[in-house]
Specification:
The protein has helices spanning about 25-35, 35-40, 45-50, 55-75, 75-80, 85-90, 90-95, 100-125, 135-145, 150-180, 185, 195-210, 215-220, 230-260, 265-270, 275-310, 315-335, 340-370, 395-405, 430-460. By secondary structure, the chain is mostly helical.
């Protein structure tokens, strides 16, 4: 009955079951970023950052190019180790030390799933008013869940088609904006804004890319483990996520700058008869991207449960049940937050900025600079953490130091760091956290290694 359903969940993918080409990752990450939620995020440039379309587009481009480096570096870990990203985090933080990070990722992706349901449901409601706002959210949740039943291969198979459709409607949308609106020429010449607003938009794009880091290797782990293909995997993921994100965000920024309306209303205002198909395709593409979020959130939640029951070997049925619970939770959140989506979504982005950067810094430093990709994968599944133990104190301390270093520089809606005025009101907390977490981890790990080596020599 379950022969066609993915069974491995969080356990390593056997080499004989791995297939595919590195370039397949391009369409996966292009399609999952080319959604209406990305367009909505792009609208934050002119609205929240108060800068022109051209400055917004440049900030989003540079931010995507920068943030995608971290995302694509994580992608290489998939074929190298064959396990999901959160299981692999036990190699840095220890079996117990990884639990808070995994819990954070689960909460983050449930929030993203809820956000997708709100935006997709709103688009569906606008196109088919017969569906109430709440009914449209539920339909979007159902469409998101269906691809998760089989597993990752369904997402992989549909990504090229979704990429082509979304690319076509984004191009059409932008063309209609330029052709039909008398303000287009002015917008393409407008250069108003501030350096602080530019950096804020830059940070939004960086964060968007880093937010996918906890699950990018969940898909790349199905590729054959061949070191010669690692650069190709990096470039495919990098190119796909940068192109998909930038194009969608740029259209969102243009719509916002030109009309001052939300993207869905702006498309309806500008596109005329084409508005329905454009919004419908971008709205349904959210369901596809949401399927990836549900799939990877489920793997992270299974990893969390496995931390308390190491002997458990979850299979396909367990994954489907947990996927169902995940989408039910996210749908409940979506129904609750639909009336205050913008404020809730902005708050989510702010929190992500605070907690994700230190994790990615430690993960990449450990993988590339310390262990150089050489991990004992069976230890990830042992009760006591195997070679990596229950707690890796240098990693945990470095993560906390990274977050503490951010606090004086944070610029949140509910909190302003005391050093923010000295930075001309520019939030550089993510850059501070990145440097602090990386440097402190390398230093603390080296100290721990030398102490352990010294103790070993004294015992001899």
């Amino acid at each position: 009955m379950f022969s066609g359903i993915e069974q491995h969940t969080i356990h390593p993918i056997p080499e004989h079951e791995r297939r595919g080409r590195p370039r397949d990752q391009f369409s996966i990450w292009f399609s999952t970023n080319m959604t209406l939620l990305t367009v909505v995020t792009g609208a934050l440039g002119p609205i929240a950052c108060h800068i022109s379309f051209l400055w917004t587009a440049l900030a989003f481009l540079l931010g995507s190019l920068t943030g995608a480096i971290f995302m694509a570096l994580h992608a290489v870990q998939g074929p190298a180790l064959g396990v999901p990203q959160m299981i692999q985090s036990r190699g840095q933080f220890g079996a117990w030390g990884a639990i808070p990070v995994i819990l954070m990722v689960v909460i983050m992706y449930v929030s993203f799933i809820a956000s997708n349901c709100v935006v997709g449901g709103d688009a569906l409601h606008n196109i088919v008013p017969a569906f109430s706002a709440h009914s449209a959210i539920i339909i979007m949740a159902l469409l998101s869940f269906i691809p998760c039943i089989i597993g990752y291969r369904t997402i992989e198979a549909w990504s090229p088609l979704v990429s082509c459709l979304t690319m076509a409607v984004i191009a059409l949308c932008f063309a209609l904006c330029v052709v039909n609106e008398i303000h287009s020429a002015h917008i393409l010449k407008d250069l108003h804004g501030s350096f602080a607003g530019f950096l804020q938009a830059f940070s939004i794009a960086v964060l968007w890319q880093v937010a996918t880091a906890p699950y990018v290797s969940d898909s790349s782990r199905y590729l054959p483990n061949d070191a010669k293909t690692y650069p190709h995997i990096f470039l495919a993921c990098y190119g796909g996520t940068v192109c998909g994100t930038f194009l969608a965000m740029a259209v969102g920024a243009f719509l916002s700058a030109e009309t001052g309306l939300t993207p869905a209303l702006a498309i309806s205002h500008i596109a005329g008869a084409w508005a329905g198909p454009i919004i419908l395709i971008l709205g349904l593409s959210i369901a596809f991207a949401n399927a990836m979020d549900i799939y990877c959130c489920t793997l992270s939640f299974i990893t969390l449960l496995h931390s308390f029951k190491p002997g458990w070997r979850p299979r396909g049925l367990s994954r489907i049940i947990i996927s169902l619970l995940t989408i039910l939770t996210a749908t409940s959140m979506a129904l609750f937050m639909s009336r205050s989506f913008s404020a809730t979504y902005n708050a989510l982005l702010e929190i992500l900025m605070t907690v994700m950067i230190p994790w990615t810094a430690i993960n990449l430093a450990d993988f590339y600079l310390i262990k150089k990709g050489a991990y004992h994968v069976p230890s990830f599944f042992e009760k006591n953490g195997g070679l990596y133990g229950r707690l890796n104190i240098p990693a945990i301390l470095s993560y906390l130091l990274g977050i503490l270093a951010e606090i004086p520089f944070l610029k949140l809606s509910l909190y302003q760091g005391p050093l923010l005025p000295y930075c001309h009101d520019i939030d550089i907390s993510w850059l501070i956290a990145l440097g602090t977490a990386t440097f402190s981890y390398l230093l603390l790990y080296k100290c721990a290694y030398l102490t352990k080596r010294s103790c070993h020599k004294s015992h001899r």
